[in-house]
Amino acid sequence: MKRSKRLMPVLELAESREKQIAQILGESRRKLEAAQRNLGSLMSFRDSYSAQFQRSGNAGLASRQLIEYRIFLAKINTAIADQEKAVQAAQTELRNRQAEWEAARRHSLGIKKVLEQTLVEESRLEEKKQQAEQDERGGRRSNGGVLTQFI
Fold it and tell me: For the domain bounded by 3-135, which CATH number is listed?
């Protein structure tokens, strides 16, 4: 079996792995985008809630309302901090998946290059073999089919 035929399944496997990793990379990217959207929503909600509280605070608030506001604002800030950690984790995961995909891509390209070089070499050897056969047939014809030996 030719080397190129033996390399084909290796290339197919490498390309399949690269495709799988690319899908995982895409999922990591979607997770990061979702985490960033959630963080933005929380921050927007906090800003809106604070602005609303400021407007109603100018009219005067009872101490109970002020305490409830502070408790709720602390919960929002905790949720924002947690979401910031989730964004950072998603960014780290995305960087790791990106590095994995790049490594898989380099591997696939390397195998593909070896396969292409092998095909070129096999083609060159086949042409050389055919030329030798043609030369041999041509030599037989010029001698009338009789092989002569020169001493």
Answer: 1.10.287.1700
